[in-house]
Amino acid sequence: MYDFSYHKPGSVADAVKMLGADGEAKALAGGMTFIPVLKQRLNKPSAVVDLSAAGLSGIKLEGDKLIIGAMTTHATVASSPEVKKAIPALAHLANNIGDRQVRSRGTIGGSLANNDPSACYPSAVLALGATIHTNQRKVAADDYFQGMFATALEPGEIITAVEFPMAERAAYAKFPNPASRYAMVGVFVAKTAKGVRVAVTGAGQNGVFRHAAMEAALSTSFTPDAIKSVTTPADMMNADIHGSAAYRAHLVGVMAARAVAAA
Amino acid sequence: MPQISLTVNGKPASAEVESRTLLVELLREKLHLTGTHVGCDTSQCGACVVEVDGKSVKSCTMLAVQAAGAHVTTIEGLASADGKLHPMQEMFREHHALQCGYCTPGMVMSAIDLVNSHPDGLSEEQIRHGLEGNICRCTGYHNIVKAIHAAWFVMHGKEMPIAAE
Ligand SMILES: Cc1cc2nc3c(=O)[nH]c(=O)nc-3n(C[C@H](O)[C@H](O)[C@H](O)COP(=O)(O)OP(=O)(O)OC[C@H]3O[C@@H](n4cnc5c(N)ncnc54)[C@H](O)[C@@H]3O)c2cc1C
Ligand code: FES
Ligand code: FES
Fold first, then answer.
1. What is the complex's ipTM, to 2 decimals?
2. What is the predicted pLDDT for the residue at B160?
């Protein structure tokens, strides 16, 4: 790891100032991705700005909105009575991210800022039509994810919270890579006031995506049978040592049916 | 270089570290607590698990500066001063839950966090799910699961039902 200077600002405003003043400075959340990246010398920040004291963790229910602070850990989301009450599928998703120690430190904000193509949260955020709050604006999920590891965040912009609408029905089904637990394929299905949405992670060449054909079929009938004949084009799928494109395309259908059955 | 202070195994500790120094490097190389192991250094194996402010974490994936002011417990901090083992260590011994012992410090630290956070009971399934971050190349896990199951009863002061085995 290259050395850097370490800062732990006490507010979002100070963190934004530090990141803005130095183009080579980077934010640190749970470090579950960032520290391994630093160890591999894939990134050489001049300064690391630890967000843990900036007041960004916490969960609250506000009317028909569930708001989760960016620094809230996966373990906290998994065990939160508010999340279990409002959107149990989200607590279930958080409880199956990585392993217990990853869940002790990894955060929802870090996961979304990173937008790993096999991460779990992006599928929930996209399927539920959540809104990402940053230090300067609010971004709809549809505008936020812009391909593998790419997001709408500007340099130095900090995610402060994620706002989820209530869901009538929702579930996440993941086929985990048995070693890392990241999604080989993960499908989040949701029925909210805005209709039915299906988001797929782990599988697509451009990261998380919405499955229009499944959304149409499930809008007519929200049953596993309704999507039995819906296919997923293999040429959009990722292929690697863990699975071919055709295998992943098939898994999308299997995981979607399981998610619908569980929702 | 940053100077940090923290509490390690109940005693105050302070050291000069670099910003990039990992918590596991602070523990092993500066504080000479070599019971915490490094198995992979890629956040996968759990040999480096320690407790930080009551939660089990991978000390190879945390900066020492992030632990400033924290209470850290390592495998060396479990037995009492007279050498009496912690119930989890005792159950690992009793149930033959280790062979080469490389994974054991991390396993024990994860297991204690798991037992402490499940006061109402801990099923085999919950134990296996809770150990996903700890890899053992020797035992096949079965005796580790048994040891943790038994330690749950000891740590929560309950009688263990007699198994039919
Ligand atoms: C062994 C292992 C298994 C895992 N398995 C899974 C899995 O099954 N599913 C899954 O979804 N994930 C998995 N993860 C990833 C993990 O869940 C973390 O969510 C993820 O690593 C990023 O979150 P973090 O809080 O650790 O962020 P960090 O690693 O600290 O940061 C990641 C990136 O985001 C930036 N960043 C962080 N917070 C903010 C913010 N608030 N605003 C702007 N930018 C920010 C940082 O600058 C950095 O570039 C796994 C990780 C490990 C090590
Ligand atoms: S050495 Fe830390 S997880 Fe393997
Ligand atoms: S006892 Fe050898 S790795 Fe677990």
1. 0.95
2. 86
At A65 the three-state DSSP class reads: strand
Question: What's the gap in Å between B141 CA and the centre of ligand 3?
Answer: 9
> Does residue B66 sit at the A interface (CB-CB below 8 Å)?
yes
pTM here? Answer: 0.97
pLDDT of residue B162: 76
Q: What is the pLDDT of residues A100-130, one digit of tens each?
A: 999 999 999 999 999 999 999 999 999 999 9
Integer Cα distance of A37 and A45 in angstroms: 11
CATH code for position B132: 1.10.150.120
Residue B138 lies in a domain: yes
Confidence of residue B163 (pLDDT cuts 50, 70, 90): low
Query: How far apart (Å, rounded) are the C-alpha atoms in residues A187 and A196?
Result: 13
Domain contains B163: no
Residue B67 structural domain: 3-76
Work out the number of other CB atoms within 10 angstroms of the CB of residue A77: 24
Residues of chain A under the 70 pLDDT cut: none
- Domains of chain A, CATH where assigned: 5-50 (3.30.43.10), 59-262 (3.30.465.10)
pLDDT over 90 for what percent of chain A? Answer: 98
Pocket test for ligand 1, best of A111, A123, A139, A149 (most atoms within 8 A of CB): A111
Which of A20, A48, A240, A201 is CA-nearest to residue A122?
A: A201
Total domains present in chain B: 2
A227 touches A260 (CB < 8 A): yes
Using alpha carbons, select from B4, B49, B51 the residue that is nearest to residue B26. Answer: B4
Same domain, B50 and B92: no
Query: Measured between beta carbons, which residues in chain B are less than 8 angstroms from residue A102?
Result: 43, 58, 133
**Is the same domain home to B94 and B62?**
no
Q: The CATH number of the domain where B59 resides is what?
A: 3.10.20.30
